[in-house]
Task: structure prediction
Amino acid sequence: MREEEIERLRGVVRDCVSKHLYSSAIFFADKVAAITSDPADIYMQAQALYLGRHYRRAFHLLNASQIVLRDLRFRYLAAKCLEELKEWDQCLLMLGDAKVDEHGNITDTRECNSMYLDKDGEDREINILSAICFLRGKAYEALENRAQARLWYKAAIKADPLCYEALECLIENHMLTCDEEKTLLSCLQFGPEDGWLSSFYSCLIKKYDKENVVEAKFRELEQSGPNTKLSDKSVLCTLKSNTDLLACKAEYYHQCGEYQKCFELTSELLEKDPFHLKCTLVHLAAAMELGHSNELYLMACNLVKDYPQKALSWFAVGCYYYCIKKYDQARRYFSKATSLDGTFASAWIGYGNAYAAQEEGDQAMSAYRTAARLFPGYHLPTLYIGMEYMRTHSFKLAEQFFMQAKSICPSDPLVYNELGVVAYHMKEYKKAVRWFEKTLSHIPSSLSEMWESTVINLAHALRKLKRYNEAIAYYERALALSTRSLSTYAGLAYTYHLQNNYTAAITYYHKALWFKPDDQFCTEMLTLALVDESRHGIDPIVESRSGGLFM
Result:
């Protein structure tokens, strides 16, 4: 057969692959490889077999060739076959021995000297070493060696920043702390044309910076900079409506506690792309916070119909039952989600929360501990363990776990709030004030109703320290956030009472009792305030001692 005819057959194979006609591709690739015995044609045949899901046959073909241990491309495809066959130890053996340090740098560089039969390199390729590192990471993760998996994922993204899957595994599986994520991104070597990718990656990681910093990152992607080339400008302008970027923005709104804003954005996104699963997860979380049970029900029904084998579908069912406070059913479906995908962090947290909602502390702690072990870069499991200890009045243990959560994510204001609460319970009021003030300083956006309890707690702590004027200022700040809080009115009344300002105290006790007429504390203190005011009006000596007109 002439060379032109063989080349025509190769073109047929490539066309069959592009049209997903894998049986045809296998048929013609087999004939080409039989005629030429060329390593490139043998690889093309193995590729067609792999795409046609004939993994065992593809592996046998590659393993039988003499070049498999010398050409990285052959070795990588053979390892991919073993990955599909779930033979993880054999997969690692095929990839060969290699070492990586704690920062994700490959110390054994023997693979760099191996052959690599490059294809016609019109398109930009991802470094084969990066792909091999990523596959090693997947194998180690499947073998539950998450420490090694983390190192190899880092090695993969360092070897080639275009290997997005490695970064996705590190972020989605919460393998790195906030600081480790930032450090990793800072040491990636992007090409001069990949500035947009660096900005995009910075939007994907945990976002606990101040609002203006995060918004600046989004704006940088949504509009071209002054030094941007014309070719780059067209790319950057189109990213303004990119669903991945908008899903990141929605995730940021959720972290800030702006649940309505988050829900509106995800609703808009899901109208455009109803099967964007990352956006779907954020949408479910926002709907949960807002108590939109009808939306959760519809989402759960659609997901179970479209993706019955995905953990997200059953997680959505669990969210619905949790929202309507049927915690037993919620637990059942959160458990199903974790059994389908053991690396689904939100399902583990939901599973623990469903137990905690019914005060079943031991089971809740078990779920949180599993999550803390599986996701070392995720601070919420550790935070929830601390909350469970605080619920059982084990304040010292609670404080230890809150400090551990702080070391994982030092930017989350929720951690500082819990540290302030536990310090308050231990009667360490100065420390409580310090933690609550730190909470308010770490809130990324303007104060919202979500943080009203922190402001009230700070006012309570200041009142305990007899810093009454400061306490009153924070109570009034809390009233600006929400005018329907019994605790705020009661605290404000009691602070005025301690200052012997009985008229103001009586006014606020009455306001507090309007929300809860049978509140024992406010009822008793109102009676005392009325008695004190009557004495205050009768006895001028009392008036002078109380710091009134005769002061």
Notes: The mean pLDDT is 87. The radius of gyration is 31 Å. Residues 520-538 form the longest helix (19 residues). DSSP finds 31 helices and no strands in the chain.
